[in-house]
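Sequence, please.
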C-alpha cells in the first residue's frame, strides 16, 4: 500500500464492511431472486495485490465467498508456488451474484455492478490488479482485446483515481480445462513477485529494480479435468436494491465480515 495513504487499513476495513452491508441490504440486483448469497469478495483490506474474476459459480453462491471451488484451489496452489497465500491478496468478481446456469453476463448487468467493483478498488488501493479472464480484463482495460492477446503483459491504468499496474491473466477455470492454458497461467504467475516489487519501488518514487529470475515452478498443481460449475464464464450484477431473506442473516453477516482481514 501507499505509505501516504489517507485511508489506513483499519478505516478501510470498516468502509468495506459498510459497502458489503449496502450491497446485501439495499441492492436492486435483478438476479437477487435466483442467487443464494451475495459474493462480495474476501481477503486483506490492505492488500497490494488484488484479483478480479468474473462471477460466482455454484459453490461460491452457496458459501458467499469467491473462488472456493476447483478454480479457487488452483488459485491457491499458484499463489503458494510464488510464496504467497490467499490472505495476502484481495479476491473479488466483477459481478457479485451467480447468473442462472452460469451464463455470460449481460451488458446491463456489468454496467450496473461495475461501480461497486471500482469502489472496492478505491478502498483497497492495490498496487497490482490481476484480471482473470476476458470479462474482467475488458472491463478494467477499457479495451475489446481479449485475454489471449494481452495475458502476461502489465499495463498501467488509472483505476478509481489511482495509477495501478493491471496484469491480465487467464482465469483458473480455463486452466482446469486445458493443459496449455494452465502452463501459461503458471508462467504469468511466476512474474508476479517482480511486478509487485517494481510497483512498490515506483510507489516509493524509486527506479524499478531489475526483475528477479522467475521462481522455479514446482510440481503438484491439479491436473486438468472436465470443467465443473466454477463461475469461470459468468457474471452477475450488483447494485442497491433488495436481497432475499437469509435463514440466518446475523450468522451470515458475521461470517462475511470476517473476510476482510
Amino acid at each position: 500500500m501507499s505509505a501516504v495513504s489517507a485511508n489506513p487499513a483499519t478505516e478501510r476495513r470498516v468502509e468495506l464492511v459498510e459497502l458489503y452491508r449496502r450491497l446485501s441490504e439495499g441492492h436492486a440486483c435483478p438476479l437477487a431472486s435466483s442467487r443464494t448469497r451475495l459474493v462480495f469478495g474476501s481477503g486483506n483490506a490492505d492488500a497490494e495485490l488484488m484479483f478480479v474474476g468474473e462471477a460466482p459459480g455454484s459453490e461460491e453462491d452457496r458459501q458467499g465467498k469467491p473462488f472456493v471451488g476447483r478454480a479457487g484451489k488452483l488459485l491457491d496452489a499458484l499463489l503458494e508456488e510464488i510464496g504467497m497465500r490467499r490472505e495476502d491478496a484481495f479476491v473479488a468478481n466483477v459481478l457479485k451474484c451467480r447468473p442462472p446456469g452460469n451464463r455470460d453476463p449481460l451488458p446491463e448487468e456489468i454496467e450496473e455492478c461495475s461501480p461497486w467493483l471500482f469502489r472496492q478498488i478505491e478502498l483497497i488501493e492495490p498496487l497490482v490488479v490481476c484480471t482473470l479472464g476476458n470479462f474482467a480484463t475488458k472491463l478494467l482495460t477499457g479495451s475489446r482485446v481479449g485475454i489471449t492477446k494481452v495475458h502476461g503483459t502489465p499495463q498501467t491504468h488509472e483505476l478509481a483515481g489511482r495509477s495501478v499496474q493491471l496484469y491480465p491473466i487467464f482465469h483458473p477455470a480455463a486452466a482446469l480445462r486445458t493443459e496449455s492454458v494452465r502452463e501459461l497461467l503458471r508462467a504469468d504467475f511466476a512474474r508476479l513477485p517482480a511486478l509487485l516489487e517494481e510497483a512498490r519501488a515506483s510507489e516509493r518514487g524509486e527506479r524499478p529494480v531489475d526483475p528477479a529470475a522467475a521462481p522455479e515452478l514446482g510440481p503438484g498443481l491439479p491436473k486438468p479435468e472436465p470443467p465443473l460449475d466454477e463461475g469461470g464464464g459468468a457474471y452477475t450484477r450488483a447494485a442497491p436494491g433488495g436481497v432475499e431473506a437469509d435463514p440466518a442473516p446475523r450468522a451470515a453477516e458475521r461470517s462475511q465480515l470476517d473476510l476482510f482481514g
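Residues 211-257 have pLDDT under 50 and may be disordered.
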